[in-house]
Amino acid sequence: MKKNILIKTLLIIIAIFFNYEFIYKFGNFDVSLMGLNFNVSLLILYILSIVKRKNNISTSKSEKVISILFTILMIIGEVISVTGNIIYLIKPKYILLTLIKVVGFYQLFNSILSFINGFIKNIKFKKVSNKKSIFNWYLKKLEKYPFRTSFISILIIFGIYIFAFYPIVLSPDPSFQIKMYFNVHTKYIDWVIQRNPLINMTNHHPIIHTYLLGGCISLGRKLINDNFGLFLYTIFQTLVYSSVLAYTVKFMKKNDVNIKYIFFVLLLYLIVPMYGFYTVSGVKDTYYTAFMILFVLFIYDFIHSYKDKKVSIPYLVYLYFVILLLCLFRQNGIYVVIVTMPFVIFYSKKNILRITSVFVSILLSMWCFNNLVIPALGVSDGSIREALSVPFQQTARLAKYHDDIIEEKDKKVIDKILNYSTLGKRYVPTLSDKVKNQYNKNATKEDLKEYFKVWAKYLVKEPLCYVNATLNNIHGYFYPVSKNWYFYYKYDKRILDGNLVDYHYVNSENLRQVLTVYGTIYPYIPLIGLVSSIGMGLYFILYLISYLIDKKLKNYIIVLVPLITSILVCFVGPANTYFRYAMPYLYVLPVLFGLLIKEMRNKNE
Question: pLDDT for 344-365, tens place per residue?
Fold first, then answer.
């Protein structure tokens, strides 16, 4: 027995700590802090699985399948992040390491899942003690007034970020949106066919958010100054964002999640820096994430309570506006809704007509908005190129590494779409912007049709090139070690051009530096730092799916459909490992974990 544990442990240590980079960059490899944190976290969990093995519960067939899937994702993610080419998995120099990693990672994940199963089954939450202490006093307040207590707590902590970064943190996207609001010519108008030559705004970024940003500045300018207007935006955003987070606390309490787990989730909101930083960030994703949380919680409530009971009209009106705002604040929100709503509609026979009416109303509303409201405002439509990152990256990689096999007539076809002469040089494996930014806005439907014929032709000839192009652009969404970008804190000066907006930070530089350092080091803290890992989100979702299947609670998988769809949206998006793209599913996961584990424990009792 001890010998088997030693052999298994040795294989696991090799799998965790012996990276492909040791061979690929022999004598010249770098130590990744994110990788070290993740590896140490895995090792801690494995050690706990050995120490507490008496409490472990054997993994089910579905969890064994999940362990295999985790293993595949880890190995592919590692080899792509190091070499950029999946073929290295089976090259003679690497194949032994690959085989060891297959065995080691499988044993590791199987052991960790066994430990987690036992932990979930055996954990006992004691009732709040009557013993006088600040902690017990706070828990009782949280139990009695979940929304009020959490809302005030969140505002106090978020207030620190608001004070430090007053009036707001502007990154490139909101800065360009503000320019568009004030009708300044930007790169976005150069990328599209301009609807009205006098209007420089496009729907590349949702116009409701653009008007909200610019409108706050205009209001602040009338009241006090531009900075105050930006501060008003931050305040509005903070109130919506904090209210939604506080609502998740109330929602968990209403659904009988243990108060100590609820406190744990609230503690995440308070101490994990990404929550605080996004209350002062001007990106659209903060609002979008808030509405995504409300949408997901509605679905949970619907699955939990409305199988044989009709949804009230006020609740349907609430659902309509939540979904409408979800679609208005991000262009891809509509795709999440289109994929998710059919599952919701057919879950309850009693509510088919009512939920369908909401779904159809949303589709009609968005059609009217895109085809009537936007043209009436003279706003130009966004470019189709935003939906074509995957094929464009594949073509660019083909041009960079296999230019010699592309026929001249095919190069001319590609040139009509992407400017072939510089295409290979513009290729960046993890970001499609440089490739798609030279998309020919005057390309016709026929040009695109011909392009896709060429694209399909070389898919057959060089499938591995296409696979590598896609994996390089998405691996951070399934490989927890990847870390590219996390939060915004820098002072962006774009809107200062031509004295467009008077925007500046106040004198709280020391506090800004402290918060920035804290936000920077947080992802590298073992175990708790994994909360900020983009790749870990998919692993949690897959684990919940396997657990729901095992506990015969398959209906609750519907709750996870918006999260899965959001990950798929990231897969076809322009950038690898962008935290704000992952926010919609990462933020709601701790809440869903508590709700779904509660359902599973209730079924066992």
Answer: 999 999 999 999 999 999 999 9
CB under 8 A, 24+ apart: contacts of 248-254: 248/293, 248/297, 248/588, 248/591, 249/142, 249/146, 249/147, 249/149, 249/150, 250/146, 250/147, 250/150, 251/297, 251/301, 251/591, 252/146, 252/591, 252/594, 252/595, 253/142, 253/143, 253/146
Token representation of residue 441? 């806005």
CB-CB contact of 101 with 15 (8 Å): yes
Phi then psi for 190, rounded to 5 degrees? -75, -20
In the chain, the largest separation of any two C-alpha atoms, in whole Å, equals: 81
Distance set, CA 269 to CA 165, 320, 585 (Å)? 18, 27, 15
The answer to whether 475 touches 444, Cβ cutoff 8 Å, is no
The SS3 call for residue 568 is helix
SS3 state of residue 272? coil
Cis peptide before 172 (omega within 30 of 0): no
Distance CA 169, CA 479 (A): 29
HSE-up of residue 534 (Cα within 13 Å, Cβ side): 27
> Residue 195 and residue 191: Cα distance in Å, rounded?
12
Contact 283, 321 (CB under 8 A): no
3-state helix, strand, coil in the chain (%, to 5): 75, 0, 25
173 bridge partner residues: none
- 85-90: list long-range contacts, CB under 8 Å, 24+ apart: 85/468, 86/464, 86/467, 86/468, 86/471, 87/464, 88/20, 88/24
The partner residues of 422 in beta bridges, in order of sequence, read none
d(CA 533, CA 483): 8
Q: How far apart are CA 68 and CA 249, in angstroms?
A: 34
pLDDT at residue 434 greater than cutoff 90: yes
Q: Within 13 Å, how many C-alpha atoms sit on residue 243's CB side?
A: 9
Identity at 51, one-letter amino acid code: V
pTM for the structure as a whole: 0.94
> What angle do the packed helices 589-604 and 259-271 form, to 10 degrees?
170
For residues 106 and 112, give the distance between their C-alpha atoms in angstroms, rounded to a whole number: 10
CA distance 588 to 296: 8
**pLDDT, tens digit, 9 for 90 and up, residues 266-276:** 999 999 999 99
Cβ(498)–Cβ(106) under 8 Å? no
Tell me 26's DSSP state. T
Which residues does 195 contact at the CB level (< 8 Å), separation at least 6?
Answer: 375, 378, 379, 380, 381
Tens of pLDDT along 229-263?
Answer: 999 999 999 999 999 999 999 999 999 999 999 99
CA atoms within 13 A on the CB side of 262: 28
Q: What is the rounded distance in angstroms from the CA atom of residue 590 to the CA atom of residue 271? A: 14
Does residue 124 carry a pLDDT above 80?
Answer: no
